[in-house]
Model the fold of this input.
Amino acid sequence: MSMSSGGEGSRMPAVPTPSTGAVMPPVAPNAGGSERKQARRENWRLIRKRPAFIVGCIIVLVWVLCAILGNRITPHHPLDYRGPINASPSWDYLFGTDKTGRDVLSRVMAGARDVLKIAPLAAIAGVVFGVILGMFMGYLGGVLDLVASRIVESFLALPTVLIALLAITTLGNSSWVVIGVVATLFTPIVARTVRSAVLAERDLDYVTSAKLRGEGKLFIMFREILPNVTGPIIVELTVRIGYAVFTVATLSFLGAGPPPPSPDWGAQVSENYNSIVAGFWWTTFFPAMAIASLVIAANMIADSVQSVVEAS
Done:
C-alpha cells in the first residue's frame, strides 16, 4: 500500500489561487504521516480479530512465561531432580521422566528460555540488516544492486544448516555466535524481499516530489520509502521468528547448541531420541511437540499479519 507523503516534513507556504487571488491554507506537514498511522491502526484492529492470531499469541505467551519464570514454576528442578528412571506419563509426572530420572515437564518448561533467548534476537537482527541492505539495493540500483544481488543469490543457494554448522564449529557455540550466524543467514532473504518492495515504490510521485525538494538519498530511503514498505517487513519479521526457532532447535539437535545437561528442546530430542526404540517415546515426543507448537504459533501470527497486509 503506497501513500503519498510529498508534503511531509516540510511546511508549504500559503499561495493565492489563480482566479480569485484568495489565499489557500497551507498543506498540513504531517498529513501523510497521519494517514499511515490511521492505516496501521486499522490493520492492527483487523489482525486482532483473527482467531489464528489470538491462538498463536496465547501459545507464544505461555512459552514466554515459562522462559521468564523458569525454575520458579516448574514442578521439579529441571537439572538436579532425580526421580524414577524412564517413568511413563502419570499424575505424578505428567510428561514422564528421562533416563536419568529428570522430570520431562520441568525440562520442557525450562527449555523455552534457551530458544526464546536466541531465536527472536536472531530474527530481529536478520530483518534489520536485511532491510538496510534491501533499501540500498532497491533504491540506488546500478552496480551496487548488481553485485549485491549476485552475492545474495549465492547465499540463498547454499544449504543453511550446513553453513551454520560450519560457522558455529569455527567460531564457537555461544549464544551470541548462534544469533549472529542465524541473522547472517536471514539477511539476504529479507534483503531480496525489501528490494522488490522498494523497486515498486522508488518511481512513484511522492519519491519524485522528495527529489524535487532537494532531499538526500538517505532521507528519501528511510523517511519516505521505508514507512510505505513496513507491511512486507513486518510479515518477514513474523515469518523469520518461526524459522529462527526451527533453525536454533535444529542446530541444538546437531550438537551446536548448549551442551548437556541443558534443557534446550533440541538438545533434549538429540539426547533421548534413541530411547524411542525401547518404548520410552515421551522423552522425545514432548520436547519435539514444544518446538512444533512454538513454530506453528509463530506461523499462525505471520499468516494473520500477511493476510491483512496483502488485503490493505
Remarks:
- Residues 32-311 form a domain with the MetI-like fold fold (CATH 1.10.3720.10).
- Residues 1-31 have pLDDT under 50 and may be disordered.
